């Protein structure tokens, strides 16, 4: 949990890789995913880097593999996917693999080209056969009449346009047969009167025998050739399929190896050579906890290459801000993604994801509180969790993939919704009587009370019960209210006409209490940031005034709500003062005395207002004046400080902060001339303006953010009312039909009710509550302590490569 509370400690390391072992060392690093490389050749274009030739070779291999995958998919052969990822190929096998793939590509292209030629020839022969069969029905030439006139020459030898008009008159009429695409028939018919046979129509012209015997002889020859082509074509396709099946067995392994090899050379292009060009130098960010693993990986790479001089590393100090690494698992990953969507945390600041694991599903459940709906959501998420290793779920489409990635979020949201549903006593908009109501209706009858109670209380009798449609239970009557319900809302409120008024009052106060506690907790977490970054002055000049401002106003509001709940009973509820009026009077100082919640309330409220009024100027001016005092009170500070800067930006605050840290550490470092440098960098006006803006935003935000938490009440009310409307319009109608047809009608009604419940109340209402819960965390909670201005740690890891075989990645 320590890593989830705060990001990992990082260090900058320098790797010295021997030229002969660099490939194997990076292969070992890629398998473990320990470091993030820095580009030491940012000013060098991609085409001028050292390993550009190797990158082109990898791209050529990817092109060949993409062609193989295309042919394998076209043949309908399934692509196998290995469960384990093969390592990057050794350098000795790269050329061999390249030769094999190139040879396989040439062979496939030749076989494919021959197959296409055979198909084309076969198609032409079939067309020729079809032409002879069709023309036989309308071409009947009388063999008794021999031609006495000159015929047209065949179109294969000479064009018709070469003959003069007189020659055409002396020739008898002939014909030419052929095949043409159906889409060009109409245009071709328009050209027939001109006796022009254009090649632009891609006509297939075949010789037509003049005699019946010739046509039969040609037909028999065509049939023989077609059978031979079918035989050759089948053998060619069988051979091609055998080649593709053999290639499919190793295409996954080779594709993964090429991806890893390309990634290695891409990282090698970020390294720089020393003056001898025999050693590569790389700079990497590495978690301090993984330094030993980094050394072990370099040793493994050197051992695999057989080098006599091993590669090594050393850490170097830097003032650059390291990237942020927060280790997660499959449970915490979804919650961390919610936080990272707001912004990647700054280096070593408090991570809200640890608390979001509980607060996010709980706030969602407050808005979505329904036992039945929450249980359905819980079962759906539980089904995804139990089948999380199913390959079909892992390869699902985008929408289902979103549900699958957030399965643990859905699981907790459903579980917490079951809890809040029991608190609200809502199950598909109906209450459940688990423990028996604490309200006793029989105690309201006059026969059970004395004559003195008859005079002081409004009791029931037979006449009152008969003539009044609405009866009121008086909790002040002895025996009517026997104590609170053991868990949640009493089910009798589901029958009350003032149920909505009661629940609105309860949920509104609950939303205010939860919101103020949530925001106060966020301000308190900022203290941990100030302690870690050694900004103790921020605790006294920022965090404590913020807490006093929050608690003296809104914390006191919570106190009044809880105090009224605990002190006033049913008998004294009529004389209980309004919390809203008392809270307003706290700021207005009314001239007339009010009843008040407790004795001495006026003096307590004035003290709280005095503390609030004093905290505001401290919040506005305390930090800027303290930094100004530090700047003017010391001649130099923090100039020779080594290691990482503990602030997030180079600002005026950083200059004073470094001096403050030197005071805390007791390091009296001073140098000549540094006062001039710091006087140029320090800008009191900018610091003052920044702090004033932050203070105004905080003070106004306390009011607006508290009101923003009322969305918990509003969405809970909307969900309950929509659920109630859906029940009244469907289930109540189906359940009221008490004959035989009603049973048959109830089945489609239940099905329709289930569909609307899933799509409207679970999906749409659930998405709405999800988005509002995100907003409450991002705006109202995280902005109290979370900066989110960091950069994410992206290690060089082969696991980040696509684990699934995708031909688009190779193309």
What labels would you give this structure?
811 residues; mainly alpha; five-stranded antiparallel sheet; two-stranded antiparallel sheet; 4% strand; flat; V-type proton ATPase 116 kDa subunit a2
Q: What distance separates the N and C termini?
A: 42 Å
Question: Low-confidence stretches at least 5 residues in length (pLDDT < 50)?
Answer: 141-152, 158-173, 635-680
Q: Largest beta sheet, briefly?
A: 5 strands, antiparallel
Provide a count of the helices.
Answer: 26
Summarize the structure in words.
- The protein is mainly α and 811 residues long.
- It is 59% helix and 4% strand.
- It is built from 26 helices and 7 strands.
- Strands 1, 2, 5, 6 and 7 form a 5-stranded antiparallel β-sheet that branches. A two-stranded antiparallel ribbon has the order 3-4.
- A hairpin with a 5-residue loop joins strand 5 (272-273) and strand 6 (279-287).
- Helix 18 runs antiparallel to helix 20.
- It starts with a helix and ends with a helix.
């Amino acid at each position: 949990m320590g890593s989830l509370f705060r990001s990992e400690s990082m260090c900058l390391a320098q790797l010295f890789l021997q030229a002969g072992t660099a490939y194997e060392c990076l292969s070992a690093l890629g398998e473990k995913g320990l470091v993030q490389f820095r580009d030491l050749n940012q000013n060098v274009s991609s085409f001028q880097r050292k390993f550009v030739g190797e990158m082109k070779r990898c791209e050529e291999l990817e092109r060949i593999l993409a062609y193989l995958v295309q042919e394998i998919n076209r043949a309908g052969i399934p692509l196998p996917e290995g469960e384990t990822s093969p390592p990057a190929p050794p350098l000795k096998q790269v050329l061999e693999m390249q030769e094999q793939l190139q040879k396989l590509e040439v062979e496939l292209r030749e076989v494919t080209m021959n197959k296409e030629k055979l198909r084309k020839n076969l198609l032409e022969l079939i067309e020729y056969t079809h032409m002879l069969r069709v023309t036989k029905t309308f071409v009947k030439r009388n063999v008794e009449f021999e031609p006495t006139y000159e015929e047209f020459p065949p179109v294969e030898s000479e064009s018709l346009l070469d003959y003069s008009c007189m020659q055409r008159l002396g020739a008898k009429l002939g014909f030419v047969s052929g095949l043409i695409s159906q889409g060009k028939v109409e245009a071709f018919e328009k050209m027939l009167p001109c006796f022009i046979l254009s090649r632009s129509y891609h006509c297939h012209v075949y010789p037509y025998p003049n005699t019946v015997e010739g046509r039969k002889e040609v037909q028999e020859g065509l049939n023989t050739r077609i059978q031979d082509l079918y035989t050759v074509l089948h053998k060619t396709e069988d051979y091609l399929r055998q080649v593709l099946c053999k290639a499919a067995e190793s295409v996954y392994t080779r594709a993964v190896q090429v991806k890893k090899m390309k990634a290695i050379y891409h990282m090698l292009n970020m390294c720089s050579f020393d003056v001898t060009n025999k050693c590569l130098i790389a700079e990497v960010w590495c978690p301090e906890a993984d330094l030993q693993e980094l050394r072990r990986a370099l040793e493994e790479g050197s051992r695999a290459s057989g080098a006599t001089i091993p590669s090594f590393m050393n850490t170097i100090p830097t003032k650059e801000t390291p990237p942020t690494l927060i280790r997660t698992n499959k449970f915490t990953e979804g919650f961390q993604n919610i936080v990272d969507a707001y912004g990647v945390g700054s280096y070593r600041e408090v991570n809200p994801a640890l608390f979001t694991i509980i607060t996010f599903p709980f706030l969602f459940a407050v808005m979505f509180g329904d036992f039945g709906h929450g249980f359905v959501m819980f079962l759906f998420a539980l089904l995804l969790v139990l089948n999380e290793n199913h390959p079909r779920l892992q390869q699902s489409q985008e929408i289902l993939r979103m549900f699958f990635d957030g399965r643990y979020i859905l699981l907790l949201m459903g579980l917490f919704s079951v809890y809040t549903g029991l608190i609200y006593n809502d199950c598909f908009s109906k209450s459940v009587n688990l423990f028996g109501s604490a309200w006793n209706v029989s105690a309201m009858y006059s026969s059970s009370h004395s004559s003195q109670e008859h005079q002081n209380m409004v009791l029931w009798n037979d006449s009152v019960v008969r003539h009044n449609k609405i009866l009121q239970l008086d909790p002040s009557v002895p025996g009517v209210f026997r104590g609170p319900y053991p868990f949640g809302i009493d089910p009798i409120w589901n029958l009350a006409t003032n149920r909505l008024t009661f629940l609105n009052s309860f949920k509104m106060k609950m939303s205010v209490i939860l919101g103020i506690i949530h925001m106060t907790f966020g301000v308190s977490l900022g203290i941990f940031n100030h302690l870690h970054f050694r900004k103790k002055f921020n605790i006294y000049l920022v965090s404590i005034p913020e807490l006093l401002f929050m608690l003296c106003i809104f914390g006191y509001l919570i106190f009044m709500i809880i105090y009224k709940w605990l002190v006033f009973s049913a008998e004294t509820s009529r004389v209980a003062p309004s919390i809203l009026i008392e809270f307003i009077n706290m700021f207005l100082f009314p001239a007339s005395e009010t009843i008040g919640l407790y004795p001495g309330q006026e003096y307590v409220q004035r003290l709280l207002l005095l503390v609030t009024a004093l905290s505001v100027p401290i919040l506005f001016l305390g930090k800027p004046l303290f930094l100004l005092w530090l700047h003017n009170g010391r001649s130099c500070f923090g100039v020779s400080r080594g290691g990482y800067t503990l602030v997030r930006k180079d600002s005026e605050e950083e200059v004073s902060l470094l001096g403050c840290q030197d005071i805390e550490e007791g390091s009296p470092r001073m140098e000549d001339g540094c006062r001039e440098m710091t006087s140029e960098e320090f800008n009191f006006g900018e610091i003052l303006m920044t702090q004033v803006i932050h203070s105004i935003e905080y003070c106004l935000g306390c009011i607006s953010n508290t009101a923003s938490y009322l969305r918990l009440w509003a969405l809970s009310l909307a969900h309950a009312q929509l659920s109630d409307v859906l029940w009244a319009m469907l289930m109540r109608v189906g359940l009221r039909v008490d004959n035989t047809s009603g049973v048959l009608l109830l089945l489609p009604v239940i099905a329709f009710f289930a569909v609307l419940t899933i799509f409207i109340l679970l999906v749409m209402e659930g998405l709405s509550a999800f988005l509002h819960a995100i907003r409450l965390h991002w705006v109202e909670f995280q902005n109290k302590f979370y900066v989110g201005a960091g950069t994410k740690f992206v290690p060089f890891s082969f696991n980040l490569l696509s684990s699934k075989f995708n031909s688009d990645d190779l193309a």
